[in-house]
Amino acid sequence: MNDGYRVGDASRAADYGLEALQRWLNNAAIMYQTHRTLMWARRPDEAAGLIRQYEELFDPDPMMRARQACMEGRVQDVLDILANQREQGDSNGNIVWLMLLLLDDKQAAEAIPRHYESEESPQALLGWLGYHKFDPSPFPSLMAILERENVDRPPPVELPYTCPPLP
């Protein structure tokens, strides 16, 4: 399911996640991944129900809430969630990066991994390649590795649940 939305039928992958939740009712990771897959499948009503179920068992997850808010057109909610993450001094730059992508602010999103750009230790950016929505082209040290290793990476994938533009 975690990769199914990337390479196959997102709706089928979401169905698989929902089936897995029948066996693993209290598994936060499966709930999180299923929610994301439901977003890719453009099934926001089911995803909203899953968030409610998740929050009955666990603390609210800012990324799940932000994805859901974007899908429902609630841009201000995403801005509030992002501000809260920044206020808390969230050390997980990936979450802020993902939220900036949700808001379609690619310039601000690119600045997050920018501090990992280094010719001395280019491998610091390699982890970002796990995101199929990550664009390595603005990072010369990373591009040098990809070229040296003959990696033909496809273009970054656009999120199907980004927020509508701000008025």
For this entry, give a set of tags.
single chain, 167 residues, mainly alpha, 57% helix
Structural account:
The protein has 167 residues and is mainly α. The chain is built from nine helices and no strands. The protein has helices at 4-7, 10-23, 28-40, 44-57, 62-71, 75-87, 93-102, 106-114, 140-148. Helix 2 runs antiparallel to helix 3, helix 3 packs parallel to helix 5 and helix 6 packs antiparallel against helix 7.
What's this entry about, in short?
By secondary structure, the protein is mainly α. The protein has nine helices and no strands.
Task: Please mark out the parts with pLDDT under 50 across 5 or more consecutive residues, or reply none.
Answer: none
Shape, please?
globular
* Gyration radius from CA atoms, angstroms: 17 Å
Beta-strand level of the residues, as a percent range? Answer: under 5%
Mean pLDDT: 89
Helix proportion of residues, in percent?
Answer: 55-70%
Number of strands: 0
Total helices: the number is 9
Main sheet? none
List the helices and strands and how they pair.
Elements: H1 4-7, H2 10-23, H3 28-40, H4 44-57, H5 62-71, H6 75-87, H7 93-102, H8 106-114, H9 140-148
Helix pairs in contact: 2-3, 3-4, 3-5, 4-5, 5-6, 5-7, 6-7, 7-8
